[in-house]
Input
Amino acid sequence: MTGIKVPAEKCGSENQTNMIRKLVIGLWAGMLCLAPALFGQGVGAQYQGVFAKATEAPTLEKNLRTLTDEIGGRVPGTLQMDEAVKWAVAAFKAAGADDVHTEDFTMQTSWREGATDVEVTSPTRFKLRATSIAWSPAIQGTLTTRVVDVGFGSPEEFAKAGDIAGAIVLVHSHVLHKWQDLFNEYLDAPPIIDQALKGKAAAIAWTSTREHDVLYRHINAPPEKFDRIPSVLLAREDALRVARLIESGKKVEMSITLPNYMGGPIKTQNVVAEIRGSEEPNQFVLLGAHLDSWNLGTGALDNGCDAAMVIEALRAIKSSGFKPKRTIRFVLFSGEEEGMLGSWAYATQHKGEMDNADAVVIFDSGSGRITGYSLGGRKDVLAKVNEMTKPFEVRGPIENTTDAFVGTDNLDFLLDGVPTLVANQVEANYLVNYHASSDTYDKVDMTELKKNLVIAAYTMAYLADTPRLGPRQTRPEIEQLMKNTGLDEQMKLFNVWPQWEDGTRGRSRQ
Output
């Protein structure tokens, strides 16, 4: 919110109109000054400076504009991702970090979409608006074959559809409204792919969950591997047109050209900055977000706004003069969209330090209002986090939850036994623009993002200054947490479980 200043030439005027104007301006300015204080009620005096500096956010908007408008979408292995890493290093240095560096890791597969082309060739002819699913295998030449509608992809609907061998299967979807709808979109995909492969289908055509021709990009491939079947996403309106043709009894034929590039290993980088602890510098808390994005849009809500916010949180803490007892690390991860590969690499590379990791905080849901933190199944830390988040109830109800899920960069820290906090946020406009061509700078709610910045900066100062949230869990304790929360079943569905079992991911057996 922009402050209102009284022009100097008006200060001495006794004109009644000017007096009223001055009164209104004074009241408004007073409310602006009071807002941070109300927001920070219950916060210790030692954190007030962090609050004040976080409300200024002098480079947040500029940094985000540079990242999204000038650099754009950021897939690892592309020039844009390389430029984003350079941007992040420079921005962290300008924010006053005690140390800034990059940490390389290798992604075992690389991918780039070719000139995707999808067309109905019979009983009529028309182009479909479509894009490739990420890490989908290529199709050699052009696939032209019949289309079989398998509804929403349940076993019963596949059975009813009959023979799908050599066909393109059309999968329906519900319009996206809530977080659970998005989770279901990911959860439903693996068993549908299993059935398509079992029936020897040639390809899958998924129906967009967004209306108004919005296209987006998901990945259904296991970590470090390519998808198991060629797959495209169709604009919802076009997919429904195809479905209606089939429903009317027409035999529909479709052609798909999908010349995707499927490459080998590439190197990419996480960007790491620090404010060193004044008393116990070897112990640390970590604030993270992912720097990479898909490239249909410019990755503003997912997750450029939070990447810029992490940098601004460092600036606020450092410029306030606050001296954290423990080190605060600020990490922008690469490879999140391909299976949280950057945070997995970081946890692996720093495995010897995990006993000193007091907490990991992740932001990855755009600019909607924060409603609390998800604690990754750690009921033992709930009381302390409830106490920490009391000052934010002035913004609205705060509820910290103890669910655990696969899907963002806290996972590998959780699997190493470290307490994790993932920001829960209202959907706002995140879902409709998620991974989509419409995910651009103008969609970011800058007012809410600045409020979230205050919460993020305070959270890190608090965690770095107070007794640790809870102990590092043992492997048996982590396994019990998985069973209690259903995380084990999610990990199996998303092909993360084998890496846990063989010890390449998570806390090792001792």
Summary: The chain is about 35% helix and 20% strand. The first helix runs from residue 16 to 39. The first strand starts at residue 99 and ends at 107. The radius of gyration is 25 Å.
